[in-house]
Amino acid sequence: MINLAIKDIIHSFGKFLLTGVGLGLLVGITLIMAGVYRGMVDDGKVLLDNSRANLWVVQKETLGPYAESSTIPDDLYRSIGVVRGVKDVANVTYLTMQLQKDGKDVRAMVAGISSGEITQAGWPPYLIAGRHVAKGHYEAVADIATGFKIGDKIKIRRNHYEVVGLTHRHVSSSGDPIVYIPLKDAKEAQFLKDNEAILMDRRRVEANPVFKNSAVSAGVSSLLVENRAVNAILVNVEDGFNAQEIANEIRKWKSLTVYDKSEMEEILIGKLIATSAKQISMFLVILAVVSATIVAFIIYTLTMEKAREIAVLKLLGTRNRTIAWMILQQSLILGLIGFMIGKISAYFMADFFPKYVLLTNLDTFLLFLGVMTISIFSSLISINLALKIDPAEAIG
Amino acid sequence: MSGGIKIQELKKQFGEGDRAVLALKNVNMEVSPGEVVGLIGPSGSGKSTLLKCLGAVMEPTSGKMSINGEIIYDNKWLIKDLGALRRDKIGFIFQAPYLIPFLNAIDNVALLPMLAGKGKDYSRKIALNLLKELDVHHRAHALPSALSGGEQQRVAIARGLINRPPIILADEPTAPLDSQRALTVIKILNDMAKELKIAIIVVTHDEKIIPTFKRIYHIRDGITYEEKGEGKKIII
CB distance from B229 to chain A under 8 Å? Predict the structure, then answer.
């Protein structure tokens, strides 16, 4: 039997191709949207993976340090470090800020890492070029996405940092690339006030009658400029110990909140990007409806154009199922063309998006099923129309 | 008569009660295998309705129809699959060729045996033979849009004949053709009717071809009248 659908498609190939391209771009955007969501999830996961921590100790009743601000004393790590089963602990600060690169703004997350071993929590687990931060001050390891190269100088607040190493895919949960600098510098960048503010604070203290004693006044002024806080303490657990049990232990005797990795994932993915995920879901639903409408409209138009031919086919004794199969095949082929163009366009478009777009095989497969399902449902209206065409119309 | 088509007291009524219109009041026709008869009548006489009833795309109200001796309608359809009836027993040739635009000439013809379950190669082979007989085989692989009006009509005739149906209903088959081509088409139909023992009913207004029919049925106000005699000029 001749494949009527294929013959018709070859006959009106230009129309099918153009429609396929239009549908394909929609499919491509759908795939990109899904990729943006997957990218956000992946950003969250790589942030946690790259921190190399099993537990995050943060300010009590906060979702810090990534989803909410958290401030805890910087000497607490000593007490936590002696808890049984704790392998190592590290203070860490995170500060998202605008950096300047060749006169352009680069949004980045500045992470303060405490001095110690490079295997310690908080340190970047691997570099793609250069070396780790070795000095206590003014060195930085930057993610390649910042655009900085080894030897470049990064200005953070009032200090300049030399880039000594580069990372890849070290990003915050918002997808901003991370710049690692020594903890002391990072604390200064985050908590240290500018000179004018410090002078004003000192004057306020001196003028306050409560601090009549000049020694007390000097002490209070000194406290105002001291940086005794960090955002979180990263904890690594020794092999054979249960991270949750250690977390419970820390929770028991310290007025702190402790999250393990799964809880932190839940915060980043379940809470931080939940609204974005809903937004993307809404877009996906709209795109699915638009795609379905386009396929339905095109197949309906193509069927209407063939009303006379369908009447003739029916008059000549063509079975209804043959006609229905022809329309369904055309719809499926249109969906397939759209899917293939969409997949190819998404592959090439993904790199042009400022945010990380992660195209997964699962999403591609689900989208393929979705497009085919939409194609099937979209063809039903046309099939219904074709089956209602009276063969007598061919006679006139 | 055992072969051909026989129609007895066929009636078709549209609507009910006060709004009832009797489009076919009393149609009686008999066409033998190998015979080509004309069916002529003015507009609104019931030609199209009769053609639709004969073509099994409209159910008559009452009467009797048989094809090759088999009763297909006796106050109701006696055949369940009317599509199969049309495919296997009735050939259609239209005023316009109504070829499938996305199929080439040979596939337009071969489609019918394929629909009847015949193989693609076999169907194309017999389609090509028929196109040869109609002298249009050199255009076998051309799409309808590339064929001339006469070539399209020959392909349409080949499509009507391909399944060797016992009857062919031709609705104004020569209307778009000039005199020469119109007479050629009628000659082809006559030759095919004799060669393949097919009963052919040609609905026409075309005065050029009316004198070629040995028998003519007139239809007026839903009633048929038979007239015999080759070469008789009839003015409706």
Answer: no
Encoded tokens for A344: 């190819």
Give me Rg for the CA atoms of chain B.
Answer: 18
> What does the alpha-carbon distance between residue A40 and residue A32 come to, in Å, rounded to a whole number?
12
Among the listed residues B140, B136, B209, B130, the one whose alpha carbon sits nearest the alpha carbon of residue B165 = B130
Minimal CA–CA distance to B9: which of B22, B69, B58? Answer: B22
Could you tell me if B222 and B26 are in contact, meaning their C-beta atoms sit under 8 angstroms apart? yes
* B83:A319 CB<8 A: yes
Query: What domains appear along chain B, each with residue ranges and CATH number?
Result: 5-228 (3.40.50.300)
- Note the pLDDT of residue A226: 66
ipTM (interface pTM): 0.81
Running DSSP on this structure, what letter comes out for residue A134?
Answer: -
CB A179 within 8 Å of CB A99? yes
**Pick from A12, A319, A395: CB nearest B55:** A395
- Asked if the model's pLDDT at residue A296 lies above 90, the reply is no
Least CB–CB distance from A11: residue in B101, B115, B171: B101
Q: How far apart are CA B235 and CA A130, in angstroms?
A: 103
What pLDDT, on a 0 to 100 scale, did the predictor assign at position B137?
Answer: 92
Q: Is B79 on the interface with A (CB under 8 A)?
A: no
Is the pLDDT at B2 greater than 70? The verdict is no
Assess contact for B126 and B162: CB atoms under 8 A. Answer: yes
Q: Tokens 């088999």 belong to which residue?
A: B70
Return residues 290-309 of A near B (CB < 8 Å).
308-309
